[in-house]
Design a protein that fits this description.
With about 400 residues, the protein is of the alpha/beta class. It has 17 helices and 14 strands. The protein has helices spanning about 30-40, 75-80, 95-105, 130, 160-165, 170, 185-210, 220-225, 230-235, 270-280, 285-290, 295-300, 300-315, 320-325, 340, 345-350, 395-400; strands at about 5, 20-25, 45-50, 65, 75, 85-90, 110-115, 140-145, 215-220, 255-260, 260-265, 330-335, 355, 365-370. The strands form four sheets. Strands 6-3-2-7-8-9 form a six-stranded parallel β-sheet, sandwiched between helices. It has a three-stranded mixed β-sheet with strand order 1-13-14, with no helix packed on it. A three-stranded antiparallel β-sheet has the order 10-11-12, covered by helices on one side. It is elongated, with a radius of gyration of 25 Å.
Length: about 400
Amino acid sequence: MNSPSTVLPGNGKKGPLDGIKVLDLSRILAGPTCTQLLGDYGADIVKVERPGAGDDTRRWGPPYVPVTRGNETSESAYYLCANRNKRSVAIDISSEEGAETIRKLAGKCDILIENFKLGGLRKFGLDYDSLKQQNPALIYCSITGFGQTGPNAHLPGYDIMAQGYGGIMSLTGASDGEPMKVAVGVADVMCGMYAATAILAAMRHRDRSGEGQYIDIALVDTQISWLVNEGANYLASGEVPRRRGNQHPNIVPYQVFEARDGYVIVAVGNDGQFARFCSILGRGDLAVNSDYSINEKRVENRLALIDILKAEIAKFGKRELLDQMGQQNVPCGPINNLQEVFDSEQVAARDMRITMDHPLAKSGSVELIGNPVRFSKTPVTYRRAPPVCGADTDEVMEDWLSGNQNSK
């Protein structure tokens, strides 16, 4: 087993967003994914949480990280996945005092991100139109299920509902099984990614003009946007795509096959690769068969070809087949479980498994997934483990509202 990388706070570096202040009024996953990414890039993220409760995901377990206070369970693994490089303040925004504190903080920040229901912050005077009066340069990003307009704008947004409404579940799963959601909250995560890129674009506009702006982004809209080739297939043909399990709609063979002792991925992307693959299988005849020699024909005759390939691949051991395909430059790969993923030499080499000190963890630290971005000049930094609810309230008030500008 490879040991995770132990991370020193910041490693003496400052990220590309150093000096940017972000007020994070979001919870669950889409907003926190966005703000964690901005925090990894160096921004000062202040996470606003309900006193005594905090982000809902703190209780989304098990598993929880064992903590030092008796038998108490504290932070869930789910919460930890999207909340590093933040400071937590506990503020009741429903009170006039709390709302006024948020208004003061918003006057000092560059970016505000929230995922309340449609109009949920207006009653507290915390909507964009109210806050831009005191901070015209503010970039304000609202994340909702269906956006600020349209007949569904009032509906709540949850990842599985976005996956269902946005079509990805109709494409996922076995052809003879039920529609299947992606195993992780990918609609939330991708919405957070789109939000981050939108915010960075808005910052570029602000750098040139001095103007802030409002960003309206929805889980369902972003879900639809990453239907990519399948969405374009439908728009071009008018034919509703169906579930194909692990098969590719436009390339054959490109799927999972069962070898003698386990499963392998075969991802043949062109006719030359197909010919070499057939040679490995001892079936060079398939590469010159007019039914299979070019990809268009392989897609057309998918069912017959896949039946042949299944029978041939089943004769090979998994490692034997992968080795031969690798030698012949035919795209292939294993299907790792998560232990195999995080124990791999590649993960260690790329620092995708990290360890950060945590004030409550019995072990003194928590293990997290690293950021995949590699900057040559302004590297990603890991400065703070996911915070304890409200732990930084006094510090943030001093830093943001009293004029002290400490490095975060």
